[in-house]
Amino acid sequence: MESTKLFGSRLSPFVEKVARALQVKGIEFEVVAPKSPADFKKWNPQTGKMPVLEISGTRQYDSSFIVEYLDEVIADPALTASDPSIRSKQRFIEDWSDESFYWYLMAMRWAPENERATAMQILSTVPPLLRPIANLIIPRQIKSAALAQGLARLPMAELERELGRRFDEVLGWLADRPFLFSETVSIADLALFGQMSTLCSGPTPQGARLIDERAGLRDYYDRIDRATARGRSRAQRAA
Ligand SMILES: N[C@@H](CCC(=O)N[C@@H](CS)C(=O)NCC(=O)O)C(=O)O
What we know:
This protein has helices at residues 13-25, 38-43, 63-73, 84-109, 115-123, 131-149, 156-174, 187-199, 205-212, 215-227, 234-237; strands at 5-7, 30-32, 52-55, 58-61. It is mostly helical. The chain binds glutathione (GSH).
């Protein structure tokens, strides 16, 4: 069987989301990291974004489309609930996490306090010879997207307060269940896990602290981590 390739960097919340989905499905894969921004367009001419998944001779783009595809080709374990009302909530949170919540992360990464560490983190994944040119392009390009969206214009104190509120709201949705609206992990949890994982990756200590201050959130993060770890059996994946 052809090998499955995940194009992108696991520093991206969307790539991490797909990596975790593959692990839940028990699909072996290799990560192909970008060498330059030109790779994004080469891998994914449609949107120029990562992740892209090469699987069974096809290339899929967009983390949500990819996970939906994985659920179609490997139905068990399912990453959405069979109950339509629960499934719609999981899809809604996945979309909220990808298209809205993500911008809190971007704002925090590209805040004046963190932008240097963020740029260094990204550049460390680029081959040394390409770093000078990447340094000229990547930070400016990504920061300008964050500023255009708007949250990145808030001062850090406001950003922390707002992100903390979003986390409290997530805990409200979680209530006393192990995963969002369900006893088993779904696309909603994977999407949030990707965002939290990037937030805990170093350049945004303010975001990592907001998670650590909330024991319920930290436990939720660790629970998704365990449920989606590579090589776990079904019994081991149980919360
Ligand atoms: N909706 C897309 C979002 C992907 C996305 O925004 N990826 C970012 C990395 S975190 C990217 O490739 N950015 C490069 C660019 O915008 O040029 C998905 O879920 O896959």
